[in-house]
Design goal:
single chain, 567 residues, alpha+beta, seven-stranded mixed β-sheet, five-stranded mixed β-sheet, 17 helices, elongated
Length: 567
């Protein structure tokens, strides 16, 4: 019985020892995560407590043990007091830093006490000018030399914004390493986003297509929003504007969301595809902006922040809906938009749950929003790039089709001149031989009138295919009009051009077609060949000479080749 009682006493002492350990910080220990579980907290209706009042309440046991590694009291919480003890079992003072990694807290008062005597204090917060901080850091840092024995730390935090308190207890070296890692990672993210902004602005300037502009604005406002809630904005962009620092988050959330909606509506072509949905989104956005403006004019910061958060939640839900209906309607770019929206929502949800203490708070969970937005930016950039390529290909195809004869797939006159003019100019400079063949289907009108235009079209197609097979790689073919065709032969002597024309004529002679009634049909063509190496002859004059030789071939009984040499 005595042994059992002794065992119970030992277990009780062990539990009490654990509780004391949990309520105390060892200055020599490495705390890589937040220390919320070591902190006691007190929140009271009396918001005017002095440091002595808080110390007395702490000594009287009126502070409650925090159960979370990251302490969170939500938006619009009353001021809160934090307290914990730091134990130094050595003989020399040890330098440690309290790092509060939230950039939007209005007022922070930190007190260090030994035997209830004040040995140091820091007063900071983003309601003060950034230049008034003891350390040039985007977060709130208070360094202190913890002497041998026990030091009590009291912290008072006041903020209208979300009072989330990820508190770290780290050395100077750990703080420097943490700053370096964050500088590299944020530098990479900001560099990528700025590059995408610049790229899409240039595309908009060149193409005047609105999705590129709205996407650039969306990324730019996200970047500014990230600057605001990470503290980079107050550190770099507006260090002398505490009032803007207070309102930056809700205002930039609204701006980012409005530009995101503008991009989504343009990118997915919602106005044309679903005009009612388009009008609903526009009207809803206008209502949210109106409420936001009224809240700002009334000076209701908490109300404005809640409006902004509801608006961005509405944007996330709407983005998923818009992506799904666009994908179902066959919009090939909706898959990118939908996937990008899912990444953004998942990142935002992870960060929100980490801040609210529902999942572990660490570097990755806190910055999940940044990772999600990076994926969003990259996917949407890929979608815009693919859209650009498709538009360019369609434009090139349209230009090409404008120069192609739709029946025979040969060049028309416009395209012929486009390709031949530079070759002709080079030939004139080098004084090389150039030849032209003009050919015409014999009795084509009679063929059309007897067997119909459908068979006439088949004749034209068969002739074009034969010419393409017999032409050399550098030759340029064109349907000149009706049943007339033209072949441009660069660096070709007249004797060689005549041989090519004869080969084409013989191939055409053996083409056999079947009429609707089953009759076997043959057809022939007449050829005119012209040649020049004289620099004062124009391309049109050479074509005219070939046309004259074609006329001679027709007069001589058709199905033959005529040239100056045969004259």
């Amino acid at each position: 019985m005595k042994n059992l009682f002794a065992l119970l006493i030992l277990m009780l002492m062990s539990v009490l020892g654990c509780l004391n350990a949990n309520a105390e910080i060892n200055v020599e220990a490495e705390y890589k995560e937040t220390i919320g579980q070591h902190i006691r907290v007190h929140q009271d209706e009396d918001t005017h407590w002095r440091m002595q009042d808080a110390l007395l309440a702490y000594r009287d046991g009126r502070f409650a043990q925090s159960g979370n590694s990251v302490i969170n009291f939500g938006i619009g919480a009353k001021p809160v007091w934090l307290a914990f003890n730091v134990r130094n079992d050595g003989y020399n003072a040890v330098r440690r830093n309290l790092l509060l990694e939230t950039s939007w807290l209005d007022k922070i008062d930190i007190y260090f006490l030994r035997q209830d005597e004040l040995t140091g204090s820091y007063h900071t917060g983003d309601s003060l000018l950034f230049s008034q901080r003891s350390l040039d850091h985007r977060f709130f840092v208070a360094g202190h030399d913890f002497s041998a024995g026990e030091t009590t730390v009291l912290i008072r935090v006041e903020s209208d914004d979300d009072m989330v308190l990820p508190l770290y207890f780290i050395s100077n070296e750990a703080l420097a390493d943490r700053n370096q890692w964050q500088a590299y990672s944020y530098g990479f993210m900001y560099g990528v986003i700025l590059a995408l902004v610049a790229y899409n602005v240039m595309l908009y300037i060149g193409l005047r297509t609105s999705p590129y502009l709205f996407y650039s604005l969306y990324l730019l406002f996200f970047l500014l929003l990230n600057f605001a809630y990470t503290g980079h904005g107050y550190q770099w962009l507006w260090p002398e504007s505490p009032q803007w620092q207070k309102w930056a988050n809700p205002v930039l959330i609204m701006a980012c969301t409005v530009s995101g909606f503008a991009f989504a509506l343009q990118f997915l072509n919602i106005k044309t595809a679903w005009p009612r949905v388009y009008r609903f989104i526009i009207a809803s956005s206008a209502v949210f902006c109106a409420f936001m403006l009224l809240a700002m004019l009334a000076g209701e910061f908490i109300v404005s922040l809640l409006i902004a958060l509801v608006f961005i939640f509405f944007f996330y839900i709407s983005s998923i809906v818009l992506g799904v209906i666009s994908l179902q309607a066959g919009n090939q770019f909706a898959k990118y938009f939908l996937l990008a929206s899912i990444f953004t929502i998942c990142g935002g949800a992870i960060t929100a749950n980490a801040v609210w203490g529902l999942i572990p708070f660490n570097e990755w969970t806190y910055r999940a929003t940044d990772i999600g937005m990076m994926m969003d930016a990259i996917l949407l950039a890929l979608a815009l790039a693919e859209r650009f390529n498709i538009n360019q290909n369609e434009k090139l195809l349209a230009e090409k089709m404008a120069g192609i004869d739709s029946l025979t797939n040969l060049n028309n006159r416009r395209s012929f001149y486009k390709y031949v003019q530079p070759i002709w100019a080079m030939g004139l400079r080098s004084k090389s031989s150039t030849s032209v063949i003009m050919l015409d289907i014999d009795n084509f009108k009679l063929l059309n009138d007897t067997y119909g235009h459908a068979l006439g079209d088949r004749v034209l197609v068969q002739l074009a295919e034969t010419l393409q097979k017999e032409a050399r790689s550098g030759d340029i073919l064109a349907r000149w009009g009706g049943e007339e065709f033209l072949v441009f032969l660069p660096e070709t002597r007249l004797i060689d051009a005549i041989a090519i024309a004869e080969r084409m004529r013989n191939k055409i002679n053996v083409i056999q077609l079947t009429s609707v009634k089953g009759e076997k049909l043959l057809f022939t063509a007449s050829f005119g060949v012209a040649h020049t190496f004289v620099t004062n002859v124009s391309l049109d004059e050479l074509i005219s000479q070939a046309d004259q030789q074609l006329y001679r071939a027709k007069k001589q009984g058709r199905n033959c080749v005529c040239s100056d040499q045969s004259g």
